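Q&A log
Question type: sequence-to-structure
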Amino acid sequence: MARVLIAGCGYTGIALGMQLASEGHTVWGLRRRPELLPAAIQPLTYLMPLRYYLVMLRAIFLKGVGLETLWPEALALAGWGMAVLALAVARSTKRIA
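Response status: OK
Response body:
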């Protein structure tokens, strides 16, 4: 059977996902707001940089807020960026040397 990703698990997405899963497909779904996820999974969203990016994107486009409000998310994204850069540098120097 097919593997299916549903971006946006609102009413339609959930119904579609349940129908596809009942037909034997492997279904993954994305939600825009972590608050809608099960309580056990919500803390794991803090480990994903996409969470911070989406919070910033929604706040900028929908509310018109600036960096003075979004500095915690910007700091988290900068931290992720530095961590990925440090990992890339560490791995590349091992190959060159």
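Response note: Strands lie at 3-7, 26-30.
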